[in-house]
Amino acid sequence: METTTTDTAFRARVVEAADRSVAEFLATYDDDAAALPHRAAMGRLLALAAVTTEPGSAFYGSGADGAGDGAGDGAGGVAGGDSAADGTGDAMRRCLDRLEQLQGPTGLFDGTNLCSPPDSAFTLNDACIALGIISALETPGKALADAGARLAGIISRATDALVAGGVHTPNHRWELCAALARINALQPRQDIADRITEWLAEGIDQLPDGMYSERSALYASAVTNPSLLAIADHAGRPELLDHVRRNLTAFLPWFNPDGTLESVFSRRQDQWMDFNAAPFLPLYRRLANQDANPDFAAAAAWLGTLPLHEPAKLLALLRLDPWLHAALPEETAAAAAPDSTLPVPLAPAGAALETCGAYRFRAGRAVTTVYGGCDGLVPGVVSGLASNPTFLRFAHGAAVLSGVRLSRSFFDLGPFRSQHTVRDGATVRLSEELSANFYLPLPAARRREDGVYALGHEGRFSASMDFPGRPTVVHRLGTEIAVRAEPGQTVLELDFDGADTAFALELTFRPGGVLDGVVPASGTPGAFQLVQGTGSYRVGADAIEFGPGLPADPDTPPAYNPGENYRYLAGTNASEGVKVFITGRTAGSHRLVLRGSTEAP
Fold first, then answer.
1. Phi, psi at residue 500, to the nearest 5°?
2. Cα 271 to the chain's mean position, in Å?
């Protein structure tokens, strides 16, 4: 390291938060320790190892049978004296008992995925971190020494299965390699290093704009980036840090002032979430200090104002990675962008993730996010595809329109999802072409005397009808949406071509504001409809005006339809929030204007 300056205020904050989290689970662990899944049991054990060996912690020295770490008695001590010490020591033993109970004969752990190498790798990564903390102590004391020995045994029993095992998602490869790299640093074996090399030879699944193939903020922060850092550090692969740098750079413009990170373009479950940005803190902090990167430092400083994510694990990482507890370079402190609480590097006027079909425009307090990067849903609703039909988000200060979606009554094929997305300056054009068939009688050559035809899927449903062999009558509906970011407003133009049918434009606002200019939506409890003029949604001094509305009509119901793929299974992908519908017919063009305003104090 080029600097050894410790950020004492940051470290003290992490220690305080870690102590609170440990105190919370110690208050209840008697009730649930025997039923903890393996990852939770190891997470608690890691937290206990971190605080009981941290001189600044209130738990320092507890559970260590009176022995310190060779650095003296430390500050503070544990409230409750021997009883608290006994509590942490017993909690560590019970976590270890649970881990050894759950470890199967192969050395792997069972969970949702049985005998899973990657799921076990999550636990074993934490086990290696805890063992690293304990191994660094000069005089760990009997309890910690026993914990270290038992952890070493758990790791050793799992190693063969991790070396031989497989995965089933992209990020699992790197989590598995990270565990192997950490194990190899503690218990070196050539076959471990060879297996890491074999996995890495596949190449890191990074798209041209810096996203990983899963396009997920959740997995980038929780798995892929931390794993690549661990492999770089423990397996001597510093070139992997470049992938982390590119990914963190790609995410910079997608943070929101409320402490979330845009994830609508994800292929994983966070596409449906308001994703908390806090897990990115150690990633930006590490490389801000290692690279003296001013943009990363600005991100780390801002992320550091949010509630800490998993503070006890963060404390454990601080113990082993000096870049994390180093002070951020003073000269890289960044002022907030105009009309925003975000620092300048996190609030550029425009941003694009071309491989994700995502675009962002900022002007003053207004932020427009356009999304047109859904994957094709030919196999139906499945895990691992980007399928969120939210194509537009608009925020003005505290007023947030969290989603705009478009439903059309067209053979139950579901909401609009762009198939072709093109940006032209401040305009993004989204388009989709749908078709549905009526099937005519089979030609003579395709008929069967027994009347039993092969079961096939025609795009909407499955049946024994020999769909490919039939003449068809085709119905089509083309939809084009142009979203144009203008100073002070965003304009949405809807154009339809083909079938004349009903549409419903759904606007979902984040709860907490006041609606005006709308009426209750008939047939959709709790929702509203804009039937004329302009409506507004106000949160404090900030407001979003939207309109014009269209007249209510019983033949254009104000409702969202997720499509037959969901409804057949009694499911939905409906979003949550304050709903306003604008309804009409798919004939010609329709215009919607979103305008932000702020009342003067």
1. -95, 110
2. 7
312 in Cβ contact with 18 (< 8 Å): yes
Q: Tokens 């003579």 identify what position? A: 444
In DSSP terms, 336 is beta-bridged to 343
- Determine the Cα–Cα distance for residues 19 and 35; give it in Å rounded to an integer: 23
Instruction: Print the SS3 string covering 206-222.
Output: ECCCCCECCCCHHHHHH
8-state DSSP, 453: -
pLDDT attached to residue 28? 80
Q: Comparing C-alpha atoms, which of 206, 190, 177, 181 is closest to residue 118?
A: 177
Q: What is the pLDDT of residue 380?
A: 72
Angle at 129 between CA 125 and CA 131, to 5 degrees: 115
Q: Which residues of 171-186 are buried (b: 16+ CB within 10 A; e: fewer)?
A: bbbbbbbbbbbbbbbb
Supply the DSSP symbol for 440: P
Low-confidence ranges of the chain (pLDDT < 50): 1, 3, 66-85
Q: What is the largest CA-CA distance in the chain?
A: 93
**Interior/surface letters 418-445, b for 16+ CB within 10 angstroms, e for the rest:** beebebeebbbbbbbebbbbeeeeeeee
For residue 480, give both structure tokens.
């084009």
Q: What is d(CA 547, CA 222) in angstroms, rounded to the nearest whole number? A: 40
* CA atoms of 471 and 286, how far apart (whole Å): 62
pTM of the model: 0.93
| Domain boundary assignment for the chain | 13-166, 357-431+478-598
The pLDDT, as a whole number, for residue 439 is 96
CA–CA gap between residue 593 and residue 533 (Å, rounded): 11
CA distance linking residue 574 with residue 403, whole number of Å? 11
Measured distance CA(97)–CA(141) in Å, rounded: 19
- Residue 70, pLDDT score: 34
Rounded to whole angstroms, the Cα distance separating 334 from 588 reads: 48
Q: Give the separation between CA 247 and CA 295, rounded to whole angstroms.
A: 13
Distance of CA 483 to the CA centre of its chain: 25
Using DSSP bridges, classify how beta strands 427-439 and 420-424 pair: parallel, antiparallel or unpaired: antiparallel
**Domain boundaries 357-431+478-598, corresponding CATH code:** 2.70.98
Cis before 548 (ω within 30): yes
What is the per-residue pLDDT for 303? 97
Question: What integer pLDDT is reported at residue 335 of this predicted model?
Answer: 65
In tens, the pLDDT along 73-114 reads 333 333 333 344 458 999 999 999 999 999 989 999 987 778
CA distance 217 to 403: 18
Cα separation, 232 vs 563, in Å, equals: 45
Q: Summarize pLDDT for 565-580 with one digit per residue, the tens.
A: 888 888 899 999 999 9
CA-to-CA separations, 42 to 36, 95, 313, in angstroms, rounded: 9, 7, 11
The per-residue b/e assignment along 116-142, b for 16 or more CB within 10 angstroms, e otherwise, is: bbbbbbbbbbbbbbbbbbbeebeebbe
The string of DSSP codes covering 483-541 is EEEETTEEEEEEEEEE---EEEEEEEEPSSSEEES-EEPTTSTT-EE--SS-EEEEETT
